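Bumping my old thread because nobody answered last time. Still need a sequence for this structure:
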């Protein structure tokens, strides 16, 4: 009987140790290591109270985010280069403000629509072709989705707080009416297939505009962007004949970069 009690106690101690090591919280060893590195006050004990204190984490090459919901106060998360099969756990990070999912082989981003407090989102180098869930993120300020397969960016018009968009290397054909984006200051649409459209006239607050390697054939609209400090339209089929003096002055000052000769 005493032997049975001793064995039971040993098993109990083992289970407690296992729990304190975090095996009951996270299935992915890389995620578990990242969580331990993020623990405050040099502690290595993983329990619910300690996990609630974590506000920032970096976990490259994660494969399974099961258990991430225990980090209920997480504000900054970097999962670049992680090859996940299921991203739904990320949708549980309701307090997240900065999220990096670059190089993650992502195709569907519907899980992002629950992140209503997010301010910065990095989705570079994925396989995304539908960006529509982004339009449901009212606090978003910085958005990177360069080197994807996006064609339609009309949903960006819903983002009143957006300040910076980096979207080079997609399949975007048209700039929509962005007059609602009164905070938009930087827009990079290089290496797309953008043609001239009235949407270009709506970039009233833009400071920096990059349209390298597109299909824009006229630049008279540039003069209407009164806050512009830099615009790069190299490698576009621009008609350089009949440029007005204002455009010529912008080119000479370096504000406007084109293949046209000053």
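Sorry it took so long. Here it is:
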């Amino acid at each position: 009987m005493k032997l049975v009690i001793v064995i039971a106690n040993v098993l109990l101690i083992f289970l407690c140790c296992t729990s304190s090591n975090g095996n009951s919280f996270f299935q992915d060893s890389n995620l578990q290591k990242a969580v331990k590195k993020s623990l405050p006050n040099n502690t290595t004990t993983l329990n619910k109270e300690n996990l609630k204190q974590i506000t920032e984490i970096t976990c490259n090459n994660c494969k399974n985010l099961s258990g991430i919901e225990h980090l209920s106060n997480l504000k900054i998360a970097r999962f670049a280069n992680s090859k996940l099969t299921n991203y739904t756990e990320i949708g549980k990070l309701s307090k997240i403000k900065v999220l990096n999912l670059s190089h993650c082989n992502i195709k569907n981003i519907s899980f992002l629509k629950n992140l209503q407090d997010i301010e910065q989102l990095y989705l570079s180098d994925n396989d995304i072709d539908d960006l529509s869930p982004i339009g449901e993120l009212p606090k978003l300020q910085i958005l990177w989705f360069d080197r994807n397969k996006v064609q339609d960016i009309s949903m960006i018009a819903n983002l009143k707080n957006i300040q910076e968009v980096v979207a080079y290397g997609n399949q975007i054909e048209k700039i929509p009416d962005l007059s609602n984006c009164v905070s938009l200051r930087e827009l990079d649409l290089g290496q797309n297939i953008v043609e001239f459209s009235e949407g270009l006239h709506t970039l009233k607050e833009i400071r920096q505009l990059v349209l390298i390697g597109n299909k824009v054939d006229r630049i008279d609209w540039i003069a209407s962007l009164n806050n512009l400090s830099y615009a790069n339209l190299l490698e576009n089929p621009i008609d350089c004949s009949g440029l007005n003096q204002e455009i010529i002055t912008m080119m000479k000052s370096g504000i406007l970069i084109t293949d046209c000769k000053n």
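The chain is about 15% helix and 10% strand. Let me know if any region looks off to you.
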